[in-house]
Specification:
alpha/beta, Rossmann fold, five-stranded parallel beta sheet, 19 helices, 18 strands, about 50% helix, about 15% strand, binds adenosine-5'-triphosphate, binds magnesium ion
Amino acid sequence: MKNGASILVVDDEERVRGLLVRLLEEEGYQVSMAASSEEAIRELEGGSHDVVLTDLMMPGRSGMELLAEIRQGHPDTAVILVTAHGTVDSAVEAMRKGAFHYICKPFKLDEVRIIVQRAIEESRTKHELAGLRREVHQRFEFSNIIGKSKPMQEVFELIRRVARSASTVLIEGKSGTGKELVAKAIHYNSPRSGRSFVAINCSAITETLLESELFGHMKGSFTGAVASKKGLFEEAEGGTIFLDEIGEISAALQVKLLRVLQDHEIRRVGGNQTIKVDVRVITATNRDLAEAVRQKEFRDDFYYRLNVVTIHLPALKERIEDIPILAQHFLAKYAKGAVAPFTQISKEAMRALMQYPWPGNIRELENVIERAITLGAEGEIRLEDLPDPLRREEGGSQLEAIPVEMSMQDVEKAHIERVLRHTGGQVSQAARLLGIDRRTIYRKMQAYNIRKD
Ligand SMILES: Nc1ncnc2c1ncn2[C@@H]1O[C@H](COP(=O)(O)OP(=O)(O)OP(=O)(O)O)[C@@H](O)[C@H]1O
Ligand SMILES: [Mg+2]
């Protein structure tokens, strides 16, 4: 049996049907048959078929209509049309409507064999690709956060665990590494997901304003306070508050927030009553807070309250293997709104994306992809659609620094070593960056006596 591939033969003429069924059964396929399009559709509902081999002209619905139906309802099934009235026009139409192939009667048995076999291969590949795509999404995506690298997988695991508790979480990471995304993921995977998620950037407003934003104020408590107002802690009751750039708040406010974390109550500015609040606090910073504590720029007691759990988000250049799936993710996101369809990223462009150091991290990557889609020609993102700094990394401003007396081999050796250092000794990743396959890099490493570390 040929991998148990299953084929449906559709023809109103019994003689032709019998001939095809015998031929395909001899080939080892699992064959079923139908005498009309209507019967074929019922048969297809009953189970999956790799290939449908159908006559074009039949009483009732034609083979062309059956083709359209299959493309709609069973996109992974390949359709081959067979007809006695072979004209170029109908062949073209069939292919345009998504037929795998077109066979004219009288057909040669070998021709049928070969085309069916190729159709099965294609249908199998489609199945596998669809499966792979699903799997990538299941394994490498968590609440809109994409990442297959080890550090990101660990972040996912940490989010899952911490989401269940109500503990305070500190998220550390440079600009654009996804801190806010992680804060939301924690909230939306927690028992508090039905309540508010409230975010505020602590560095964006003055200290007095921030205090009244957080805790609210009483009427007349300061000039301009014409009415009493609820603060964000009260707004977030039962939910989560996200304090971004927590490293920027004043010492005085650190003391006040520390009290909130300990006593779970707040006091509005100008008020003398305390109000109980049940709010989970998540904070984020792009500073090294431990260092700030050592420098006495940040209160240690407050710091220990904040970092009950710390989630560290690595810079994008420390997880190069995430770049291709992130790039694909943003391509899919922005290609939807684009005038022209974009489906892929050229090899050269991908290599440039993987070599660039990404000081702005994922936000910068997202912007670069969006820009390339807006400015680029349709089809794929090419090297020339990327902004200057990315292309320069590719080219070689640093090459100027190589002394002229260095031989090609010395340069190659030095470059491989440099890339391996960059990937932390990951050979496959280095090979990808260098644009060579794994076997080649291993061969060169051996020849030049380069060790992974
Ligand atoms: N792992 C990821 N998968 C998919 N998208 C991501 C990921 N990380 C970040 N992004 C996207 O990148 C952008 C920046 O993320 P976010 O705002 O969470 O970063 P941030 O660390 O808070 O940055 P900043 O410090 O500048 O405020 C957002 O559009 C976000 O959706
Ligand atoms: Mg942010």
